């Protein structure tokens, strides 16, 4: 089986090799990268009270369980596909393998938009809460300074080896989960079996008005869980690590949020939790901490809220720059984005570009005098969530198509589970779009038309793919091709520029197509 190295219009052939992304990630490290992006502390403090207040009240714990079931169905097909495909392209690669090259490029550019928006949103939220916490401790520093510092540190971590980021995120995540676990334990000691009231799972409670809004907030808490596939090329054992990390991430996020929201219902009372949350909002869990653990623990929680947001920022940044790296490698975006640091083995150019782009978005909001949380964070996170849920739905379609006619096809893993996931994700997407103004808290028609950017990115991707097909057919044929898991396992490293052999193993028409030149 042979491949052809495409020749550029200037007559120069692309480089056949480049520094490698290092396979340094174990399964636990991938889990930490993924779960940290869900920001357990900030999700509990920020999203759960809103779900109580304007959602279905005491039914929120069951809503998290429902969201987890939908995403677990998605994970079944996603994990099945990950056993056959290895790449750093995530949605881009999976959609390409199932639905073809033009949809793949549309998915890739949509993912860049969605993840960049999510990174900017989390950066704004970090600046806002860091300003509040620092002011409460006698250090009044404006939010742009905090946001700028967080982005600078993220840029440094993105420049260096990814396992360093995984270790930092592990420490931060363990600390925030430990404090919230202590709060749940203290509630349990005081209330006993009443800590987890059965009323929270009764049909009349779960199906109360506001279920759709609560489900929307629940799904926002899972943003980025599917990023395990982005680290396939950097995993020591991708055939095992990616599916295990995907399942583990969904289960951990679901259990954590369901139990914490359930314990809070027990502490406040099922009949009063919606009213109390509507009055206290972001202070709800801090007040619970004051009551059950004391003011010192509350101070620790406030600091960990900021570290949680930084963990989410770093986790989402790491995922987003993998998309830029792969799309540069595939020549959808400038090829210089695919450069890998010769010593750290990191996609440092993609990371730097993402850092600049994120800082520019935050800077525009700051110069406009916009609020870092109610304007920047909510709008950008809502946009990112719309894009990511749309991409998850596209992958749910791609999985059964990919396995059609293959001996590995299975009635549950590759057929029914993806269909159930698709139904849930389409419903969730409709809820997100229908309630977008509620999420952003803005009545501006311009703000609430922002989801059209997702459609614009997808159409731009289709156009870019068709342009490549007509102008550079060799580059086009190499889009969204990947190394098989067998190929990766047989080689000591996965090249940042896919080798001819790796592409040939993935498809007869594959090409080695990356150059360090634009």
Overview in brief:
Helices cover 69% and strands 1% of the residues. It is an all-alpha fold and 518 residues long.
Order of helices and strands: EHHHHHHHHHHHHHHHHHHHHEH
Which structural category do the helix and sheet elements fall into? mainly alpha
- Count of helices? 21
Radius of gyration in whole Å, from Cα? Answer: 22 Å
Widest sheet, order of strands: 1-2
Low-confidence stretches: 1-20, 483-518
Count of beta strands = 2
Largest sheet: 2 strands, antiparallel
What's the mean pLDDT score?
82
- Helical residue percent band: 55-70%
- Fraction of residues in β-strands: under 5%
Gap between N and C termini, in Å?
A: 29 Å
Based on Cα principal axes, name the global outline.
globular
